[in-house]
Amino acid sequence: MLRLENITKIFATDLVLKNINWEIKKGEKIGLIGSNGAGKTTQLKILTGEEEQTSGAIIKEGNPRISYLKQEFDLNMNNSVRDELIGAFKEIQIISQKINALEVEMLNKKDSRDSGNLNTLINKIGNYQRKFEDLGGYLIPAKVDKILPVLGFSQEEANELVSNFSCGWQMKIALGKIMLLQPDLLLLDEPTNHLDLDTISWLEEYLLPLKTSIIVISHDRYFIDKLCKKIVFIENGISKTYNGNYSFFMEQKLLDEQSQNKAYQLQQKELETQKRYIERFRASATRSTQAKSREKQISKIVKVDNVLKKTKSPIFKFPECKPSGKSVLEIKNLCHSFSDKIIFFESNLKIISGEKVAFLGPNGVGKSTLFKLIMKQINPEIGEINLGKHNLITSYYEQNQSEALDPEKIIIDLIFEMVPDWPQKKVRTFLGGFGFYKDTVFKKVNQLSGGEKARLAMALIILKPSNFLLLDEPTNHLDLQSKANLEIALNSYKGTVLIISHDRFFISKVANRIVEIKNSNFHSFDGGYEYYLEKKS
């Protein structure tokens, strides 16, 4: 259907894409994988024509219809759901508006004696009506009515404003607009961001049976693993294709790295042997010619990259802290509402030291509100929230933590403000553990990507030792390797952790207890995510 051949993309002096080669066939579902800033979204924009490649070519079979679901949904919040879905058919709407305008003009001239002018208007209306019919304009209401229940909307809800619905439901509307156009190729850029687990499950079940070709960028490893049977991995501006799902890709990538590392070691050994020969016989009367010849050969050798050096990634390491007492948190008869909605009603919960608890539930159920109540940012209407009294030191990562960073601050200065007595070498080593190397430590916050801001916010959170962590969506905007490293750090963390996350892979790796918020109450499952799924089923 579509092939990228030797695509390069340069922004100013920044080479983002160097040698991109991959293809998608009819019906294939491809996962586009790579670290933040690897150029994944840039490739989608090149496919849609929003960006132009510096060199290389996009080869298409015919003229496939391409639809692009961006991270920021393009919706008119003041439209009803029905009108917003109808708005997908822009060309038909324009024709409909022209027909209406001509009909008004014809009514105004109905009493005119200029019959020629009236006939011209009638012919124009007829031409537009035929075009309206050819484009399927009369079928639009039926198409919208058909897709509404698939998206989960009732006929009554279809008349409500888009702004009345949560982010997850708005994503459904945006996806519905695209699917009404019946694209040949669907581009999805982080479609699961900020969606609750129920909506992510719905999206998986909706996309899996589609015959439409799909290219998806996502940091949701469960989602990619289930949906995609082909992975295109982008690293250092170069693409590599793996014909399998995400789990296969991870296994194969590890084997590739081991093989490359072995080749690197062998090449280094051979180079050392040749260099010793050259040094030994460079000045020899009988062998200097051979030495020079070998020197020329070495200069032409294509060097194998050092995998260990190349794949250096952010490392999250929580500092040691004195242990807290056994009781960390006790919630008694909590009652709390938001607007007119009761979030918690006579709810009770106990958290003990060492537990790693994931809070699950759809958007709007009160997860972030709970954390704000625990942190005493807001007060409960009824009931008690008691934190442990013995040596409890708390750190709180809010969902919008990175947005709270001062945009004009320089990265290294933010760290020095937290630890003014640290020498610069120690600060730079610390920042290197979060992926900020060399001159990047002197960047301003407003120059950072979403993932870089998230890493910086996490760095500031863990600078101060703690034994009680509250993490609200800590993996949003983190790339796959950063998530894996955060999982490792949390598994070795000796304190207590409360987590809000829609990343099922992350929850399955970290949590040893699941608390589902449902019907204004806490429902506890004393096991990990797989145990929770088993009990739920």
What is the element layout, followed by pairings?
Elements: E1 2-11, E2 14-24, E3 29-34, H1 40-48, E4 55-60, E5 66-69, H2 81-86, H3 90-108, H4 115-134, H5 140-151, H6 167-180, E6 185-189, H7 197-207, E7 213-217, H8 221-227, E8 230-235, E9 238-242, H9 246-281, H10 288-300, H11 307-310, E10 327-338, E11 341-352, E12 356-360, H12 367-374, E13 382-387, E14 394-397, H13 411-418, H14 424-432, H15 450-463, E15 468-472, H16 480-492, E16 496-500, H17 504-510, E17 513-518, E18 521-525, H18 529-536
Helix pairs in contact: 3-4, 5-6, 9-10, 13-15
Structure, explained:
The longest helix has 36 residues, at 246-281. It is flat and about 110 Å long. It has helices at 40-48, 81-86, 90-108, 115-134, 140-151, 167-180, 197-207, 221-227, 246-281, 288-300, 307-310, 367-374, 411-418, 424-432, 450-463, 480-492, 504-510, 529-536; strands spanning 2-11, 14-24, 29-34, 55-60, 66-69, 185-189, 213-217, 230-235, 238-242, 327-338, 341-352, 356-360, 382-387, 394-397, 468-472, 496-500, 513-518, 521-525. A hairpin with a 2-residue loop joins strand 1 (2-11) and strand 2 (14-24). It has a six-stranded mixed beta sheet with strand order 5-6-7-3-8-9, sandwiched between helices. 31% of the residues are buried. It is 41% helix and 22% strand. With 537 residues, the chain is an alpha/beta fold. Among the domains are: 249-310; 327-536, Rossmann fold. It has 18 helices and 18 strands. Helix 5 runs antiparallel to helix 6. The mean pLDDT is 88.
